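In response to reviewer comment 3 from the previous cycle, which asked for concrete evidence that the modeling workflow produces usable outputs, we include below a single protein chain processed end to end. The sequence was submitted unchanged, and the resulting structure tokens are shown without manual editing.
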Amino acid sequence: MSAGGIGFAIFLVTVGMSWQAGTYDAWIDTATGLMSGHAQVQHPAYFDNPEMRHNLAEGSDLTRRLEGVPGVVAVAPRAEAFALVSAEERSFGAMVMGVDPVRDAALSDLSTHLAAGEYLPRPDSALVGTALATNLGIELGDEIVVLGSAAEGGVGALVSRVDGLFETGRAEVDRSVLQIGLAAMQAGFDLGDAVHRVVIKTRDARGVTDMRATLEAAMPAGGRLLDWNELLPELEQAIQIDRATAAMTYWLLLLVVAMSVVNAFIMTVFERTREFGMLLAIGMRPNAIIAMLTIEALCVWAMGTIIGIALCLAVVMPLSAVGIDISGIEGMDAMVGQLMMPERLYPALNVEVLVESPGWMLLGTLIAALIPAFRVRRMAVVEALREEE
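The workflow returned the following structure tokens.
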């Protein structure tokens, strides 16, 4: 019974932790995949004060150097400006982003959310959010005028034709973002080869921290590297809060199982009092009996751990390959669309998951074996021999 309880607890905790890890990976991929990427190189002052003058002078060279860093999957340079977008008599403020269509499509999911048209097919093309297009009263093929401050303090201006409309489901993006070709943006705002961000996508978002030194070595002097934790601090906070909440549930489950194991060993000592009395009578030391109880506890823990991990692997390994379709779950289909969550979630099994819960159960099991040991130390041989089976 004790081994079964330990195995069941380990199974529930490891499966739960694996599911959480997979969910967090989906959160990170969803949040970073739209525009921010896994990391960015910026001018040191741009993140806190995003002005046109805070740019990186040699954007093309920096992009090529970062593309050569091992572990980097895609790199996309971007120039940005807060500008006034006009169409006939209507004008609205927007974030204008100059992008390399090929590089940005390999890094950002924005091109996959086309509501109409194409993704920047020509140098003078514009991709506009549907809400911004509605506010401006424009359709595919219409011309828009963008006015803002140029890099040297003058007036930046350009004319683009709307060749695509996108809709992400995020109102703040759909009503305020406009993408145009990087070359057109640099020419219209006198940027030359300068960019404001060089966005990086790596093989593993969680491994960006380990790559930091390598990425910084490829950066120009004075550049600033920001990973997704710094770019999206609210995402990391949400993960930490969710992890802490789940940890409380896991701790309660492990505590309940540990208490049941303690109870089982206490009952074992009471039921085997006569046996222990006989062992003491023939000269066995109390410490040897305690060691025997400890070995029994370790065997129970080992059997429970093997059962729990075997069940976990049997469940998680197939699901990590095929995933779990959440779009068909009632109530989840709307969330998939609105939050741009992936349709399938993949549990993520790692060494931490397989070690953490068995480790805590080992500690609980050893404590469970030691608590009854105090009774063995105080046990009187004559009284123990008189104990009825």
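DSSP finds 14 helices and twelve strands in the chain. We consider this sufficient to address the reviewer's concern, and the full set will be provided in the supplementary archive.
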